[in-house]
Design goal:
By secondary structure, the protein is mainly α. The protein is built from 12 helices and no strands. The protein folds into 2 domains: 68 residues, no CATH class; 132 residues. It comes from Rhamnusium bicolor.
């Protein structure tokens, strides 16, 4: 037997390649289960898929469209529990951070609305998780490190508006406050050149958050992100830097 052939066979039979070969069957198996009435079943589906994303990033690239109906079912179901919504959002976050942006572009118009709706949820844990997802979605719809032909502009105002509502609300959970600051920092960093009319209302809120010792560090990180944006001078944030007001 050719020793080179033996080496190739060994390489082809690694656990990762074996798992990759089973992805299509795995997705087909969970598709129906993701719309089961049993919350435990759906939670197990999300956990299984999260493990796949963890050990084999990008493995679900060709199956995003197959998984979205099940995700939306848990996010939009009328009687869905808070835990179920959080698990669904957590899985979306896992997907977004383990796959290339372009695989989501055909599905943004379907995926984004329920996330925006979750940002406005009354339960702070759902809101915090949704803001986490929204921050990643901003990077997905307009990645600044690669050339993308995706038209993100129809989604810009809705993303900005729902984040602004949370950023402006003073009496909310601390985690939500910090997530809102971080998310708005990402929004301005990636989409700010299409929000020029809104920035004069948005950016001063960062200054207010700098005055608060509890939110100061998160705000500094958000402003650092904005200042380092490749969009550069088009963001016109210099007035904040030069505006000298005591904290």
């Amino acid at each position: 037997m050719d020793p080179n052939a033996m080496v190739m066979d060994d390489e082809e039979e690694t656990p990762m390649t074996l798992l990759q070969q089973q992805i299509e069957l795995l997705v087909k198996g969970v598709q129906g289960q993701m719309r089961e009435k049993s919350m435990k079943t759906r939670q197990d589906c999300f956990q299984l898929l999260k493990e796949v994303c963890s050990v084999l990033p990008g493995a679900l690239s060709t199956h995003i469209g197959d998984l979205i109906p099940g995700i939306l079912y848990s996010l939009s179901e009328k009687n869905a529990s808070s835990n179920m919504k959080i698990d669904a959002l957590s899985f979306i976050y896992c997907l977004l951070t383990s796959h290339q942006p372009q695989v989501f572009h055909p599905h943004i118009s379907i995926l984004l609305p329920p996330v925006i709706s979750a940002v406005g949820d009354n339960f702070y844990k759902i809101t915090a998780e949704a803001l986490n997802v929204l921050q990643e979605l901003v990077k997905v719809i307009r990645p600044l490190n690669i050339n993308s032909g995706f038209d993100f502009t129809p989604f810009t105002k809705d993303i900005y508006s729902c984040t602004l509502v949370r950023l402006r609300t003073a009496d909310i959970d601390q985690e939500v406050k910090e997530k809102a600051i971080s998310t708005m920092g990402q929004v301005v960093c990636n989409l700010g050149d299409h929000l020029k009319n809104e920035l004069p209302f948005c950016l001063p809120l960062f200054l207010d958050r700098l005055r608060n010792e509890i939110t100061r560090l998160t705000t500094v990180k958000a402003l650092t992100k904005i200042a380092g944006s490749p969009l550069g001078k088009s963001l016109q944030i210099s007035f904040i830097v030069h505006k000298k007001e005591p904290f």
